[in-house]
Amino acid sequence: MSPPVVFIDGDQGTTGLLIQERLRSRTDIRVTTLAGAERKDLRRRAEFINACDIAILCLPDAAAREAVAAIVNPAVRVIDASSAHRTHPDWIYGFPEMAPGQAERIASARRVTNPGCYPTGALGLLGPLVQAGLIPRDYPISIHAVSGYSGRGRAGVEEYEGAGAANAPLYQVYGLKLAHKHAPEIQQHAGLAQRPIFVPAYGAFRQGIVLTVPLAVRLLAPGVGGAALHALLAGHYADATHVRVLPLHESSAVEHLDPQVLNGTNDMHLSVFHNGDDGQVLLTAVFDNLGKGASGAAVQNLNLMLASQ
Question: Where is the Semialdehyde dehydrogenase NAD-binding domain (predicted)?
């Protein structure tokens, strides 16, 4: 039997290139891509996508929708790394550790939408706590995250590594209109009653993310503090391969968080920091925006889907 064909559409972007790198040595699949001159040829794209077993879309949102619309072969399965389908009810959300049974749902799905990089950290923290009722659904959530510049794709890499790199800012906060496209995704999949305030930023490093969510204990469910939040997260991820919740004794000794510490991996570290005297808690996530936040997540979902072929 010939190996399954995996078509990477948009293979020259930061996410697509890293997916190719991670799949290059695999012998259990055959990877196909479009030649450079064919990347904007809709007819050739349709031919390739309809001839594959699983398509991985690393495209802008509009192009991802066009690619899906071109599928006429009912056997083709899709992993979409864009944000085009992340809140669509007919697509399975590709965060295997998010909820019990989610990995199984991904494995059997025809259409899987990869999480955004920032939502991976936000939902990794908030999802279990909101679903368990420790954080009220109407809590006024605020999220701050700093990503490496590769989170902007090729434009970010060019700004920081191209001819004008000397003039690139060391740090830049964006999304100041408070209408970032990740906010509805976080709200929906965390089960929040209202849209969170999401403030993202880029730093002058290539990849890696630190994401933080501050909480006031007085606004949480009665009796809930840092220890209870930590216990719930630790229990939820106890058997997870790629998500680790730092024990409280380890996080209590942490003085700073390095966004780059997990670069090159598909892992994510979650921590709970708390000040019992002042009733304050800080939830944190550290991971690689191109690993667990993009390419690594796509490959993780691909492996689940291949196992069910």
Answer: 5-106
Residue 276 CB neighbours (<10 A): 11
Which is catalytic among the residues 19, 55, 98, 117?
117
Range of the domain at 59: 5-115+294-307
- 58 given a catalytic annotation: no
Q: What are phi and psi of 258, to 5 degrees?
A: -100, 115
Which two three-digit tokens encode residue 238? 């106890």
- Per-residue pLDDT band at 41 (split at 50, 70, 90): confident
Instruction: Give pLDDT, residue 116.
Output: 95
For the stretch 188-225, pLDDT in tens is 999 999 999 999 999 999 999 999 999 999 999 999 99
Residues 179, 107, single domain; the answer is no
Q: Answer for the pair 7, 38: CB distance below 8 angstroms, yes or no.
A: no
Q: What are the residues whose beta carbons fall under 8 Å from the beta carbon of 206, sequence distance 6 or more? A: 148, 149, 150, 157, 160, 161
